[in-house]
Amino acid sequence: MTTNTEQWTPPTGSQAAALPTGTWWDAVRVPEDIGEHALGILGARSGAVIKDRCNTLYWLIAPGSAATWNLYRVHVLGAVEGVATYLGVPPVDRLTPPGSHWRVPFTRDGYLTDPRLLHKALIRALLAVAGDGRRDGR
């Protein structure tokens, strides 16, 4: 059976498109310091990741798979009671700034990240970033 997540591809052309969360995927929004650390933990197990002009990272995960998450500085963007949040998705071939781009490139067969692995990586990243802050006297 084909699902919406299997049929989705990023926009083509030269402009990012505002696409609704909760239809093909949900997005996990993470600040750059935590996100880059989580990317290091996930390595090749990460699916596609969008980085916006504010250096925020967004992982794409299956809709509803992180609805119960409650992590500091981590926000799950998905449809709530039928109302979607929109995410600026760059064209499939935009891999560098300026503007939103694919920090980890989109591939048709592996763009969604396993939410269990992402959750674990984000917890480890949050602990590492908090530990770094304590050493700096923050």
Q: What does this entry look like structurally?
A:
With 138 residues, this protein is of the alpha+beta class. The chain is built from three helices and seven strands. The mean pLDDT is 90. Helices cover 26% and strands 20% of the residues. The strands form two sheets. Strands 5-2-4-3-7 form a five-stranded antiparallel β-sheet.
Element layout with pairings:
Elements: H1 4-7, E1 17-20, E2 26-30, H2 32-42, E3 49-51, E4 57-61, E5 75-77, E6 86-89, E7 101-104, H3 115-135
Antiparallel strand pairs: 1-6, 2-4, 2-5, 3-4, 3-7
Helix pairs in contact: 2-3
| Beginning-to-end CA distance, first to last residue | 52 Å
Strand order of the largest sheet: 5-2-4-3-7
Average per-residue pLDDT, rounded, comes to: 90
Number of helical stretches of at least 4 residues: 3
Helix/strand order:
HEEHEEEEEH
How would you classify the helix and strand content by structural class? Answer: alpha+beta
Total count of strands: 7
Strand content: 15-25%
Percent of residues in helical segments?
25-40%
What low-confidence regions span 5 or more consecutive residues with pLDDT below 50? none
Q: Biggest β-sheet, characterized? A: 5 strands, antiparallel
> For the CA atoms, what is the radius of gyration?
15 Å
* Principal-axis shape: globular
